Amino acid sequence: MSPRLVPAGSDPAGRRDRPLTITVDGDPYTGVAGQTLAGVLLAAGRTSWRQAPSGAPRGVFCGIGVCFDCLVTVNDERDVRACRRRARDGDAVTTQSRATGERDGQRP
Amino acid sequence: MTGEPVTGRRHVVVVGAGPAGLAAADAALAAGAQVTLIDTAERPGGQYHRMLPEAYGATDPGVLQHGYRSFDRRVRRVLGHPRCSWWAESSVWALERRDAPDTADVAHVPGSAGDGPPLVHVLSGTPRRRHVLEPDALVLAAGAHDRVLPFPGWDLPGVYTAGAAQALAKGERVAVGDRVAVAGTGPFLLPVATSLLEAGSRVLEVLEAGRPGALAGGWLRRPWELGSQLGKSGELLSYAAELGRHRVPYRLGRAVVEARGDGRVEEIVTARVRADWSVVPGSERVVAVDAVCVGHGFTPRLELPVAAGCALRPLSAESPAGSPSEVFVEVDGDQRTSRPGVYAAGEITGIAGAPASRAEGAVAGWIAAGGAPESRALATLRANRDRGRAFAARLAAAHPIGRNWPGWLRPDTVICRCEETTYAAVCRSAVDPTRTEPGVAKLATRAGLGPCQARICGPTVAELRRGGDTGAGPHHRPVAEPIRLGELARPPEPPPGSSEPSAHPDSPVEESTS
């Protein structure tokens, strides 16, 4: 099983979710306004979206902007920490890789 | 001129809006200063009081928070104050010492006497804009992040820091998994497990590597000291009760020593560990999980104090169990650092929890704003702070990191997650006479050169190279936050809407002790 969002209906914090949609490498993902990009991806059951130099998968590790494992490109802006950037409706996210042989391997 | 408030008042810049920074801003406002409060998050609170996003429209956010009401009062008082500028989603990317001989700008910084706090370089907004603040006093309250010791498979997706699991549950209402184990050492594992339970995860077990003896010695010796920290120990007891209610086993002397899975964690190997954290052979157990949350204490975020030139102190002064790489900002009784005009509060001065952080912040903010040092309220705050620190020292002593934890590692275990430097490579560099100098070793192994700039692996590499690189080494990051060349090339902009001075009468400093 996977990570997921606490359903708004059973959340004691009393949420009023407003849905939004982003794309990741062209695929649509539905999230909730206020979520980070990492939150949207995790809640959709996706645990990895970046590749380390060896090609090993990376997703969220520290969750607070320290480890830089979760970097993505957002609307052509490179090296954005997915755990820190709030998702905005229509955001076009592309994944990044530092794997050898890929042109996209530059460091921030 | 950049960043100068349009008033004759003292301008205090506070970096970090967690318990310490918020208290500092509150006290500095009470002492009559103009305050700029800067934090990377959208909302104040730091990791301890992590708030739900505004857009969630939560009607009852307080149910997820300890001490929410007094926190909420303070947030409203500070952010609503006419002399406070609140800079959300803003990062300090550099501190520029005005006394530094290599600072070309010194000549045209108005009034730079070389004895004031550094210039504060900030990135703020989306897209990010560059600003430069020139404060009369600077309070650093940057907090700490989880320390996680490496183990085979810790770089698999599904392995989270304990703090990540809590931030996602409390701050976004995302549960990281259905079958979750929480492991490591320290009292923070308890609230993390509680947050996961609250978010609907099944917490299979909480593994505390510490042994019963050390815990009993640290927690139960001199119980009257606990009494003075009733709020904090009561909070811990409530977490423990919650685990009991959900029948979550809390196992002492057991650790996660491996994570396995194809592309993400599917199972973990746990093992009994001795007091030095060496694995007891034959005690291994395999547990199927879809997430594991790990924390072995905290690493203070020291890049800004180091950039400001603040003296550091080793943890071992108060706890001989501390590792040589654990250092904190040295402060005096008024939270002054060794640098003029620079104050420090909260976890960067020692991991002492929210009550001590609040007290430190209030002392720092009051003094930084030029408040009277002999104020009676201050004496109470100092006493609260000292009790908080004593409590923290006991907790630290109860949860030392066992020195034989590297026994978990294999030659191919990744130590630096960014560059995938292996344990074998770090060990080779430690004994190679041409690579013993830390800078050379870094270039040779690439450990610490990746995007996180050694934030995660720095203290671990320093420890594995024992004696090679300790002190400020792992925390030396002159560029504290990645900045794009385009952002750097544009001239700094004046701060957004500095507020007018107000006729608020100065009120005595307040501090809630909840």
Automatic annotation (TrEMBL), chain A:
Q: Which InterPro entries match?
A: 2Fe-2S-bd_N, 2Fe-2S_ferredoxin-like_sf
Per UniProt, which keywords does this protein have?
Oxidoreductase
What superkingdom heads the lineage?
Bacteria
Q: Which Pfam families match?
A: Fer2_4
Query: What does the record give under GO molecular function?
Result: iron-sulfur cluster binding; oxidoreductase activity
TM stretches of this protein: none
Instruction: Say if the entry is tagged with keyword NADP.
Output: no
Q: Where is this region: Disordered?
A: 1-22, 85-108
The yes or no answer to whether the keyword Transferase is present is no
Q: What is this protein called?
A: Proline dehydrogenase
Give the organism, scientific name.
Streptomyces niveus
UniProtKB/TrEMBL annotation, chain B:
**Does the record carry Oxidoreductase as a key word?**
yes
The segment(s) forming the FAD/NAD(P)-binding domain are: 11-361
Q: Which domain of life is it from?
A: Bacteria
Query: Is Oxidoreductase one of the keywords?
Result: yes
Q: Where is this region: Disordered?
A: 465-514
- Molecular function GO labels: oxidoreductase activity
**Which controlled-vocabulary keywords does the entry list?**
Oxidoreductase
Note the SUPFAM superfamilies from the entry.
Answer: FAD/NAD(P)-binding domain
Q: Which InterPro entries match?
A: BFD-like_2Fe2S-bd_dom_sf, FAD/NAD-bd_sf, FAD/NAD-binding_dom, Metab_Enz_Cyan_OpOx_G3PDH, Opine_Oxase_asu/HCN_bsu
Q: Which PANTHER family match?
A: ANAEROBIC GLYCEROL-3-PHOSPHATE DEHYDROGENASE SUBUNIT B (PTHR42949)
Q: By what name is this protein known?
A: FAD/NAD(P)-binding oxidoreductase
